[in-house]
Structure formats: structure tokens, C-alpha cells
Amino acid sequence: MAFKYAIALTGGIATGKSTVASLLALNGMRVIDADTISHEILDASSEWVRENFGDEFIEGSRVDRAKLGTLVFSDKEAKKKLEDFLHPKIRAEIERRSKKQDSFKFPYLIDIPLFFENGAYDIKESVVVYVPKDIQLERFMKRNGYSKEESLRRIESQMDIEEKRKRATWIIDNSKDLKHLQRECEEFVEKIKAKYLEKK
């Protein structure tokens, strides 16, 4: 059975989850990245994307993720079609990697952007990377160059960050500077180590 030692790492768009994943890895935590896995599977499925969405979503031999993203965030049917195709494949790969990590008998993280939304993973504990909504919007617009309207549409396609905060086992606060975030990550790793050592 997979996920025995797994902790879900999640958050909202532009809350800084990827940065946190990197910082936690630097502090010795092992991380399975669902986003990376989904990109690998999507690129390996470019023919399926071409057949189902059209040539304009292919650039060379790879999927134009930005263009496909614009489509699925504005078309529920297209979003469902893509998710129905991708999610079982992503899950199977995450499960395979999780079983390997479980063999080390030590906690590890699985970076799952839509962990609470999909409820597809039987993982008991979670850590949410949190920023207030106004900062989330500001960072998303700055990072992606989208309009306020498009940014809000994408942010609101996910569960509200305040609700994720309520559901989390742990919170990593990314509302301040990088130094603060580094401290938050270090403290989280210490908590995990302490909890694991207690169990031993």
C-alpha cells in the first residue's frame, strides 16, 4: 500500500509551493512532485492532445502548456476531458514512486497542487503553503503577466486558500520575505523529525 509515510504538500496558485518544496529538499526532505510528473505525462501524450484539442496546442513535439491552460481554464468540458485523461496516469506514477519512498520508512512529501480539491489520495497529513488572497493575486499577476480578471479566474478555479489553511495539519507562512520562509521551512522539518522520533 502506498502513502504510508507521505505528507501532502499543497497550497494555491502563486503561494510559493515550488519554492517551499525546494527549501524543504535542501533541508533533507524527499519530495515527489506531481506537477513535474503531470508535465512529463502531458509531453509524452502530445499526440493525444493534438487529436483531442488540435494542432495549435502543439509546439514542435511538445504540448504548448500555456495555450492549453488558457483553454481549460475557460472551458469546463475541455478541463474535464484533460483531467479524465491525465489524472489516472499521474496517480499511478505517484503511487509507484510513493511505494519506493515508503520502503525507506521515513516521512516524505508529495507535492500535490489539488490535494484537497480532488481528494484522490489517501494521505492523512498535509502541509499548506499559505499567503493571504491579496498577496496571492498580486504575486500571480506579477509572475504570469495575466490581467486581474484572468488571474482571479485561475485562482478561483481552486479551493479558497483560507479553506485549505483550515484543513491543513501544518502551515508554512509565505507572506513575508525569503528569510522568513526559510525559517518556516526549517521549523517544519524540525517538527516532522521530532514527531517521527517520538513514534520510533
UniProtKB/TrEMBL annotation:
Binding annotation for ATP: A14, T15, G16, K17, S18, T19
GO cellular component terms, A-Z: cytoplasm
GO annotation, biological process: coenzyme A biosynthetic process
Annotated signal sequence range: none
Enzyme Commission number(s) of this protein: 2.7.1.24
Reactions catalysed according to its record: 3'-dephospho-CoA + ATP = ADP + CoA + H(+)
Primary site of residence: cytoplasm
Protein keywords: ATP-binding, Coenzyme A biosynthesis, Cytoplasm, Kinase, Nucleotide-binding, Transferase
CDD domains per the UniProt record, alphabetical: DPCK
Annotated metabolic or biological route of this protein: Cofactor biosynthesis; coenzyme A biosynthesis; CoA from (R)-pantothenate: step 5/5
Catalytic EC class: transferase
A Gene Ontology molecular function term of the record: ATP binding
Family annotation (InterPro entries): Depp_CoAkinase, P-loop_NTPase
Pfam families: CoaE
SUPFAM superfamilies: P-loop containing nucleoside triphosphate hydrolases (SSF52540)
HAMAP family for the chain: Dephospho_CoA_kinase (MF_00376)
Family: Belongs to the CoaE family.
Stated role: Catalyzes the phosphorylation of the 3'-hydroxyl group of dephosphocoenzyme A to form coenzyme A.
Protein name: Dephospho-CoA kinase
